[in-house]
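Take a record:
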Amino acid sequence: MANTSDISRGMIIKLDGSLYTVVEFGENKTARAAAKVWAKLKGVDNNRSIEKTWNSGDSIHPVRVERKTYQFLYKDDSGYNFMDNETFEQVALAETLVDAPQFLKEAQEVSVLINTETEQPMSVELPDKIVLKVTYSEPGLKGDTATRTLKPATVETGATVNVPLFVNEGELIRINTKTGEYVERVKE
């Protein structure tokens, strides 16, 4: 059993029957009252974000999570299908468990967080930055690069990303999967 002094960013805890990951936490100390520990929590098995406050020293219920590397295979009516790179076992997961499904491409490696108590997948995380090919983009105007003007470009997964005017069709670009923003052009 853990207590509030063990809270850390990224920790997954069980609260009221649901799982939450700690986004941010801190401690409030006053002269007269006992210290309080607060945390901003994001739902792992639901889409809720909450704030929770405990008295210092209260018990919390951390959940042990295992991170495994899976490979994305395909999407069908059952959901997004992934394969464990070690056991070759396949699993189909709902779109709500994937953090940026619009950037998933076949054979891409992802991290799947698995609850060790139930052996159930909890979420799928893409790498922070991925490289994708631009499949469609309007041509930019020559000499119009002084300003930070962006244009929409479609990448190989079908997602639309705003890119600078100098990015052309057929080029590789790096995308931040957390924000969905263009990072840089990649040389082949």
